[in-house]
Write a structure and sequence with these properties.
Strands 1, 2, 3, 4 and 5 form a five-stranded mixed beta sheet that branches. This protein has six helices and seven strands. By secondary structure, the chain is an alpha+beta fold.
């Protein structure tokens, strides 16, 4: 068990008289520690500082103590900066991995988009997606009414189809019955794809 005593500059007081340096005092701090744990601290009495060769605590010693404190603070700051730099590097590495994953996902999306754009019946959504999109647009009741007025093939398709292609002839027939444009139906499919 190592007990250490350290004396460091604690307070440096300077007095001025009409803009002229009139005197200075320093107070030291005595710290008693055991294995790095502070056991006690005691402030010393103010000691006069020798500014121009007078009796008292020499200014060079005060500056040396202040420099030691500054160097200690610098070392602590450098260690904190190194830790911060390491954390930044870790974050940058994680960001690079996430960006690479985003590029891969975008390539997959682009490949899917290309594949569906080559499909003569267009992109596919499932029956739940299309119904949720119709609800959001407020078109569901009108579609249900148009289906009810349509052929048995369209009624069966609407009731049983699980995957619905954008350019299927039945979609076109219902769209025409509702007076919807191709752009509006494309928008419906784009919305459904988000569900």
């Amino acid at each position: 068990m190592a007990i250490t005593k350290q004396i460091t500059a604690y307070e440096f007081l300077v007095r001025w008289n009409n803009g002229v340096l009139a005197g200075a005092h320093i107070r030291m701090l005595e710290t008693i520690s055991e294995n790095g744990v502070v056991l006690s601290q005691k402030e010393g009495a103010a000691q006069p500082v020798s500014l121009a060769g007078e009796l008292g605590f020499p200014i060079a010693d005060v500056l040396s103590a202040l420099q030691v404190t500054a160097l200690t603070d610098l070392t602590t700051a450098q260690a904190a900066k190194a830790a911060s730099d390491a954390a930044l590097k870790t974050t940058q590495d994680a960001l690079a991995v996430a960006e690479a994953k985003a590029v891969t996902l975008q390539a997959q999306i682009d490949a899917y988009t290309q594949a569906t754009s080559n499909d003569p019946e267009g992109p596919t959504v499932d029956d739940l997606q299309i119904r949720l999109a119709l609800n959001e647009l407020g078109w569901r009741d009108a579609v249900e009414a148009a289906v009810a007025q349509s052929s048995q093939d369209i009624k069966d398709w609407w009731a049983k189809a699980r995957n619905i292609k954008r350019r299927n002839w039945m979609v076109r027939a219902i769209g025409e019955a509702l007076g919807k444009t191709d752009a509006e139906l494309d928008g419906l499919w784009a919305l459904a794809a988000t569900k």
